[in-house]
Amino acid sequence: EAGGPDSIYIEPNDLDMLQSNLKMLFNDLKMRNRMALSGREYVQRFSDDRVADNIYEIYKSVFAVDESESLAMPKKLSALMITYNEIEHIDAVLENLDFADEIIIVDSFSTDGTVERIKANPKAKLIQRAFKNYTDQKSYALTLATHDWVLFMDADERITESLKKEIQDTLKYRSSKASAYYFYRVFMFKEEVLRFSGWQTDKNYRLFRKSKVHFLQERIVHETLVVDGKSDYMENKLIHYSYKNFYDYKNKMIKYGQMKAREEVQKSYKPNPYHFVLRPLYKFFNQYILRLGILDGKKGMIISYLNALGVYARYRELKRLKKQQRMAAVR
After folding, report:
1. By C-alpha distance, which of 319, 295, 54, 62 is closest to 198?
2. d(CA 105, CA 8)
3. CA separation for the pair 21, 257 (Å, rounded)
4. Of 104, 218, 268, 307, which has the fewest beta carbons less than 10 angstroms from its beta carbon?
5. What is the largest CA-CA distance in the chain?
6. Which residues lie below 8 Å from residue 26, measured CB to CB, with a gap of 6+?
7. Is the pLDDT assigned to residue 41 strictly greater than 80?
8. Is residue 71 over pLDDT 60?
9. Distance between CA atoms of 283 and 208, rounded to whole angstroms?
C-alpha cells in the first residue's frame, strides 16, 4: 500500500474499526509522531529522482539498453548460512538459494541429519565449527565468502520468486547505489501470516557487500550489522517461518534472553522487581495492545506472551550471572 508499513490500514466499510483506530491515534502522541516520521521516510521512494531511476531501469530491462558491458554484467553472489539441527528447513532453503553462485554453510555440529542433507547438495560447501555466539559464527561465515556481494539467510527464511528477481536485478543494475539492503519479513505462525503483534515493520539486512560491512562484536544475539555506505531496502518481502510450535518458540525466546543477559552482565545495575515484573508486562502490553497483537487473536496473545517470557528469562539469567560473579570475587 502507498502508505507504507508503518501506516494503520482498515477495512473501508468498517466504521467501528475506523473509530477505534482514530481514538487510538488521538490519544497516543508518540505513535502519531512515529508514524509521521516513518511516513516522511517512506514517501521518499516516490521522489522524482527515484521514480525516474525506476522508469529508466524498466526501459533498460525491456530494451536491453546498457550504458556499458559492465553495467549489464550481474555481480556474483555468495549465499551464507549458519545452522544447527535444521532438518525441517535445510532441503527447502538450499533449493531456495540455488540461484546463488556459491552456497556456504557453517554448521555447529548438527546431530539430526542436517549435515548429511548439506553434503548431499552438490552446490553447498559445508564447514563445521563450534558455536560461541551468533555474531562470532556469522562473522566467521562472512570471511568465507568468495564474492563481495553476500546474501546471508537464516534456515527458516524463504525467498519468493518476486524477491529473487529483485535481488538479481539489483545485482545487475543497482549495486552501485547501496552497500546493504534491508529485507522486510512476513512472520509465519505455523502456516498462517501473523499480521500485527509488533512484526509489521520487522526487517533485517540480508543482502550486502562483504567489503562494506562488519558485525558489531558487542552484540552476541540479534546481531547488528554495521554498514559503511548507503542502505536501501527491497520492495518484496522475505518469508520467515519462525514459529513452529509453542515449545520450540518458547525455548528460542528463553535462549535469546539468556544470551542477551550475557551481553549485559558487565553493566552496573542489578535486576530487581522492576525488571522481573514491569519490563515483561510492558513487553506484552506493547506487542499485544500498542502493536495491535489483539487483532491477531489467539496467535497474537501467544507471541506476545512468549516474547515477554524472553524478557523475564533475560533478567533471571542476568541475576544468576551476577551472583556467580560475586561468589567468584569473594573466593
Report:
1. 295
2. 39
3. 33
4. 268
5. 76
6. none
7. no
8. no
9. 31
Query: How crowded is residue 166: how many other Cβ atoms within 10 Å of its Cβ?
Result: 19
- Rounded Cα–Cα distance for residues 248 and 130 (Å): 22
β-pairing, 203-209 vs 124-128, is unpaired
- CB-based contact 232:179 (threshold 8 Å): no
* Residue indicated by cell numbers 502490553: 285
pLDDT higher than threshold 60 for residue 69: no
C-alpha cell at 131: 558455536
Query: Of the ranges 14-23, 38-47, 208-217, 257-266, which one carries the lowest mean pLDDT score?
Result: 38-47
C-alpha cell of 178? 547501496
Q: Is the pLDDT of residue 65 over 60?
A: no
* pLDDT tens by residue, 178-226: 999 999 999 999 889 999 998 888 899 999 999 999 999 888 888 889 9
Asked whether the beta carbons of 150 and 210 are under 8 A apart, the reply is: yes
Instruction: Decide: residue 252, CB within 10 A, 0-12 exposed, 13-18 middle, 19+ buried.
Output: middle
Angle at 252 between CA 131 and CA 262, to 5 degrees: 60
Quote the CA–CA distance of 100 and 165 in Å, as a whole number: 12
Q: What are phi and psi of 215, to 5 degrees?
A: -85, 135
Within the chain, residue ranges assigned H as helices are 15-26, 29-42, 48-63, 90-96, 114-120, 134-144, 161-169, 246-264, 273, 279-285, 298-330
State the chain's mean pLDDT as an integer: 88
Mean pLDDT, residues 51-66 = 71
Q: Supply the pTM of this predicted model.
A: 0.71
**DSSP string of 221-273, one letter each residue:** SS--EEESS-EEE-SSPEEEEEES-HHHHHHHHHHHHHHHHHHHTTSS----H
Strand 180-189 with 231-233, pairing: parallel
Residue type for 134, please?
Y
